[in-house]
Amino acid sequence: MRVALALGQRGLGRVAPNPAVGCVLVKDGHAVGRGWTQPGGRPHAETEALRRAGAAAKGATAYVSLEPCSHTGKTGPCSTALIEAGVERVVVAMIDPDSRVAGGGIAALEAAGISVTVGVLEREAQRLNHGFILSRMQHRPMVTLKLATTLDGKIATASGESRWITGPEARLDAHLLRMTHDAILVGIGTALVDDPALTCRLPGIEIQSLRVVLDGQGRLPQSAKLCDGTVPTLQIVAQDCVSTAPKGVTRLAVPRDENGLCVSAILSALADRGITRVMVEGGGQIAASFLRADYVDQIVWYRAGLVLGADARPGIGDLSISALVDAARFDPVSSRALGLDRVDRFLKKL
Q: What residues are annotated to the active site?
């Protein structure tokens, strides 16, 4: 099952709105087929593993990180494919939260006389597809807040200089992180000051994440890299915005609340577009707005050995917290060195 989960991870950022699933077929102590959800969401992991196994799938045990589907969409049900291939046993990490499946795949397998075991490494599977689960259960994507700061949490000097706080190893790792998300989001302040491309600039990357800019007043200029037309860009503005959208950019209006653009409306709109994983990259006010709304599920924090002081620009804006009990809390899950920098990952408890 750990192998199946590792295979499923390959699909993160490439398979939305589908889940990222891995499957391993084992027979006589040997893996005879393996598969993972392919870019665009199809073929599914099970059919890929069956294709690679061929006739060896008959009598095998299938380890699948998510319940095999039981409904017919653009492809046939994976549960049917496993039955027709003569698989003898199926081990499933977690039940599919999609109402079109939700136990139906397991029921179909058992009705065909196949032994089914459920719940192996369930928590790990839930972490892998947390974005998919949220999209089905709460109609929103998973949110990763990515920060690249000094030791004292600053993202730029008082004058706005920010390139580069972290070193090349950390920046490369951040591109790998982008690759695992369906959308990359920044605020208009970051878009105007840094003029980011928000692309994953790694060799061999063909599928790019949706670029999203929160721009209440519609100030994004046509000259911005986000308007270059090379990668889809979504400009989210306030409902009362009267400016014209730049060419090559899709515009979406959402309501305001007391803190600016309504975060829940933003996330719901992204879920409508099939986004299951969104990475929030900046700036400080955008980070604060997602934290205030309690919609940050993961923090990935790159830190350089620099100190800029109180007058520098913070990575997280004002949260108006007066008591520790009101603080957002996250569990540390990993920490590693990247050249002269470090990256720490924190998760909100499920």
A: 46
